[in-house]
Design goal:
Elements (H helix, E strand, L loop, with lengths): L1 H11 L23 E3 L3 E2 L2 E2 L4 H8 L4 E4 L4 E6 L3 E6 L2 E7 L6 H6 L12 E2 L9 H8 L4 E2 L3 E6 L2 E8 L10 E9 L1
Parallel strand pairs: 1-8
Antiparallel strand pairs: 1-2, 2-3, 4-5, 5-6, 6-7, 7-12, 9-10, 10-11, 11-12
């Protein structure tokens, strides 16, 4: 139990930041959050290049923070969203059921505005969509490995994870997770 309390304490560690402009002066998360992820510009109306501080001001305090390396970090929102930063600039998002392993994810008790989002890419791809539909939408630009399909939009790579029946990727496999990351 102490391990979970320690993880909760670490995951909820955050410090308040002051707003710099009128958009940022709102208290807590921005209302009117969109569910659209635009691989060319950003996520949920938040542009690539947004600083961690401004991101927190816009979307509220994260569930947790991860230092991935000296230059890389992630802000965790709820169980499913990890927003990725390089040198304090937004470069990507990872969305999957349980960014952490399932035992840690089930220990998280708070929810965020991102928990209820049914995300979709600006080209129409969404969670639960069949592989056959994704292939129609993306066309020839798609590359794949056993469980992931990827395509590029300018400087951004979009990786789509699929959940399979019987451990085989087939046309009935459905979208399960997403990584959108700008170079």
């Amino acid at each position: 139990m102490k391990a979970f309390q320690c993880i909760s304490l670490l995951a909820s560690f955050a410090f308040p930041l002051l707003a710099a402009d009128s958009l940022d002066k709102s208290e807590g998360p921005r209302s009117g959050l969109t569910n659209v992820i635009d691989a060319a510009t950003g996520f949920y109306r938040t542009a690539f290049g947004t600083s961690e501080e401004k991101f927190i001001t816009i979307h509220g305090e994260p569930t947790g923070r991860l230092r991935l390396s000296a230059k890389d970090s992630a802000l965790i929102y709820g169980k499913d969203h990890a927003f990725l930063f390089l040198n304090n600039q937004l470069i990507g998002v990872r969305i999957t059921e349980g960014v952490f392993d399932w035992k840690i994810s089930t220990a998280l008790t708070n929810t965020t505005q991102f928990d209820a989002i049914e995300w979709k890419l600006d080209n129409g791809i969404r969670k639960g969509m069949a592989l056959s539909e994704v292939q129609k939408d993306v066309g020839e630009n798609i590359a794949n490995n056993k469980y992931t399909f990827a395509y590029r939009v300018g400087r951004t790579t979009v990786e789509i994870d699929f959940i399979q029946q019987d451990f085989e990727l087939d046309q009935k496999s459905t979208v399960h997770g997403l990584l959108v990351k700008r170079e």
